[in-house]
Predict the 3D structure of the following.
Amino acid sequence: MSYKLAVNEKDVYFNFESCTFSSEELDKHANKKLYIHSLDNRLSKLYILVTNSCNLQCKYCFANCGTYENNRGSNMIDMDTFRDKFLELQKNYPDGIDIIQFFGGEPLLNYAFIIECIQFVNEYCNTNKIKIPKYSIVTNGVLLSDSWYNELRNYHVFITISLDGTISVNDSNRFFVNGKGSFQQIYNNIIQFNNKEQLTVEFSISDSLIEQYYHDMAKDIIEEFRELGFQFIITNIIYSDDSIKVYRENYKTYKKFINDYIELLLKELFSEQCQLYDIQLTNLVINILSKADVRNTCTCGVNNLTMNTDGQLLTCSMSKDILFDFEDKEVTLDELRKSYCMVTPPESCQSCSCQKVCSAWCRELDNKETMPYKCTLIKVMVKRLLTLLYSLKSNKADMKMLIHNIKEFINRMG
């Protein structure tokens, strides 16, 4: 399908099949291909839900402070459970795992398990001559002491701290059970770290920011993160029911924010010191530059899996269904994985001009339907990105810088 752009008072078409620009519209029909994935011998990513407990009560938390829908059994995963299930999982993925991410709840509440898990997996991989996975952890940072930080760094663990910007915005979202904000304690932890090379911040943008928004607010927050020493800044817009309600009531502000936000992101992507990435925009760039002839979406259930505290497998941490229980001998994991290899998107996606490159739709959220306010964001991103790529298509230096920054993102995030 072609996407129409108005550039310098003339029509330009971007063909999503060939990922090329043209002066003529080549295809008026939407790409209605299924989302197709292959079964690999190496698992791309394993999320481990280390614990169901959390020491914060973030107001937009989709996990109910870590409990999720199907993770309400054991409070914390133990090493015996993980060891048994990991060895079973390796039968399906004999070439190992690319990335293991420790998640929760607050994973640092089960810190001893994390260290023992890394040691066990490394020993297993060395013994079986398998490439050792990368490790990452997503934490709220409350418990991250200098000694734990340095130990995790010694194991080459990439550390992501969730922090939502200025103290007023963060503390209106991320607070303790008693209602006290978390910013100051996290800040006090971060400033004591000497080497922040492996430190990433995940900046969730929600209704609290929109209600307080002023021009360049996102830019000011990003600069604060840089001053704190974060080497990598990942942004994510929250689409919870409460946030969508505020976006609807403040739609002009929401649209103004989107325009400012995308301009900031695009400027960063072409800069020599790129540190800021929005996952949706970055995936759009990857899909366009890779010129993939088969539409891909999230590989959860196929090449991405989540292990809960009981050692059961979910398609992802947000799934409401158990994908596989290792105690069930009536069906194999491979049989279940095959059902996720071909996925039909919603009708609204199939008729959308952005469908070929968009990765916004999630089959585990919003009853498997699209989110209109998220679609608004993606459509603005696609238009701005394609317009910019068209203007720079002969600028080899800028395109080389863009490709370099995207490769840095892939290397960091997997």
